[in-house]
Write a structure and sequence with these properties.
It comes from Nitrosopumilus ureiphilus. Pfam families: zf-ChsH2. This protein has 102 residues and is mostly beta strands. The protein has one helix and seven strands. Strand 6 and strand 7 form a beta hairpin. Bound molecules: zinc ion.
Amino acid sequence: MNFESELSQGDFYIPECTECMKIVWPPSEFCNHCFGEVLLKKKVIEGKIIEFSRQGDAYFCLVEFEKEIRVMAKILKMPKIGQKVKISECGLINRNYFFHVV
Ligand SMILES: [Zn+2]
């Protein structure tokens, strides 16, 4: 399993080291703590909004997953700090990750 190919199919997996069990972010083949092998063990859909800003008719928010991973995501309805959100869509555009949450 490859992080980017899973993501481009709409599945967000947490890259985790098989040696030290730490989350490896940004995703990499080898752990940035111990150089252990990284596997995609767990699929997540739910995160928490850390902050947001308005851009045009949508909002962009910083969403935290598993208390460690933070990504930028687009949300249509006005969000609240601390709000739980779910990934409705994710993928790759020009090799950049994108996330839509609801
Ligand atoms: Zn490790």
